[in-house]
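Input sequence (691 aa), recorded before submission:
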Amino acid sequence: MNRDAKAIAWTISITLIALVGLVALVALFYTEENWSGKHAWENCKRELEAKGETLDWKAYIPPPVPDGQNFFKAPKMAEWFVKPRSGNFTNELAKRLTYANTNVAVIAELVVMPPSTSASLALENPNLVLRYSSFGKAVFLPATAVETNISSPNFIIPIIEMQDVPLTTVIENLARVAHINYLLDPQTGYDQPDQNGQIKPEPTVSVRWENITAREALLALLNKYDLQLVEDPKSNVARITIKSPISPQIYVLPDACEKTEKLFEDVIGTNVIGSQSFALLIKSLAEIKPARIIMQSERTPDDKEIIALFTQFFPNDAAKLGSPKIHVERTGANSFRAVLDADSAADYLAWSEQFEPDFNLIREALKRPYARMDGDYDNVFFIPIPDYAAFRALSQTLAQRAQCYLLLGQPEKALRELSLLNDSRRPLEAPPTGKTMTLVSAMINVAVAGVYTDVVADGIRLKAWYEPQLVALKDQLKEIKLAPFLVEALKTEPAGMCHWCEITWTNKIFASVNRNLSPIPVPQGWIYQNMVNVVELDRMPLKGFDLAHDTVSPRVFDDAAQYVDNFLNHKSPYKFLAAITVLNVAKAEQTTAYNQTLANEAQIACGLERYRLAHGEYPETLDALVPQFIEQLPHDIIGGQPLHYHRTSDGNFVLYSIGWNETDDGGQIVMTKTGGTDYTNGDWVWQYPTK
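Predicted structure, token format:
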């Protein structure tokens, strides 16, 4: 054999040896990965079994039940309430129940006029005359006569002129002349270091005003420096603070605000906001006579200013019930009108009466003790789930019917509708196992409970419930326990995912995530490691629930969410499945805790209203309710301490939970930048004291 042949043979031998070695290493790698992954998975299952729990998917599948005892086998129930898994489908029940309200009522006509023009010449017999300040965005009641007493806060000062005066000094002087007691919010931070250590210098003021009151000057000054005056009529002490983007952009003097709100209350009459976001009125729309308002101003405010003014009286935050949303339309160069989307209670009931046969079908079906949907439970991606649209439409319609009956003084009929609404949650709580399989079911249950509680609150605000209804509502509210079903759903989700992984070919799992990986044979052990991470991460929020003591811990939930984010930020073949399947349940946890809190507060509110009916006033403490008006007081599910309660000086009450921040903020509600209620900060307050 020549030298070249030997070299080739040697190269081939070395290559073969290297290939054999590589194959052996790969085989060893796969063996090790498969063994360690399988071992980790078996350990995971044993640890759960030691706690009395299981990841066996069959244990989560609801057993078959007799058709005659199954809610979903009753006529129409599966068709209406089970979501089809394929095709473009519009739920027939939801479509019919959705009320396309096109009715509107003009509730105000506003004309802007120069101050020198007589109001009666432009609009005969106006209901209200307002004055829009030329010095800042503020609204007053016009003075009936020129104030000549120099010590009066309404005295018109001929000239106010200042040159390089510190802002806080100007505020102090103007507030004193205007007879305003105030506190300067430390957040203004003048001459103090901010969070970055930067000193915020106090501005100096150089202005000249003519023919202005001290209050007008103060408001103009505050507006210029992005500050606002927040007045508290109870304490008679105002607060000057940094203007918030959600704060009213038009200042309205308290007496002008009170008079305007009273005017609109007279125009609209008793009302509630329906679940479908339009106002339900005790009056017919034909009875609505728009308020005639004149605004005296040196200039015509722009559309944004007019809208900002009207939203003072009709805030868009649904937290303030009885304040319907409106929109403002320009009707001329200097005229506007406010339009309300609304319907009368009688007309809505007449429209919705057509569904009474459907409601009776549901009532009859609910007499069946079990609720099991037909479907492919072995395939976790095709588990039958309830149709959210149907449950939402049903709950909204029943809620609005109940609200209408409350407005019309028929609480017994309102209770009948509300009881059906509450009973409609039972199929979502998945008898016969009593365990909710999916997060979808759990959160529909939470949402329906929230709609139910809102209507209970409407009746208390309207003083429409009487002793028999309050007793029945108290008993229904006592049975609302939302957290256990969310917990069961959070246990079911990882069990289902792991079941799918166990019965699916390894490369098919990888291909479903990344097609580029499908040709590459991957270790089965990687799947097992992913399954372990899915279970551990999905179950981590469960530590925030203490079902035995009926409490939740927001801090534990938040820490768990942060841990999951940090864990998944570090890429690994052990985490790819967890990264796309681990549930983000932060919103679900908070919404569940909030709606459960409202249900608990509603139960107490029913007891408080029963006490008021019996004694003519609310009690000094909640202990006075036990046991005659409530068997046991629900505690705050945040932390487990008693809910906070006190009577107010006007004869109402404040009832609240410390909320998600786990801090007693004294019953303060915090708003978001968009004007809604901030459920993460501030307290969770029962917002429906009777008036």
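Checked by second reader. The first strand starts at residue 104 and ends at 113.
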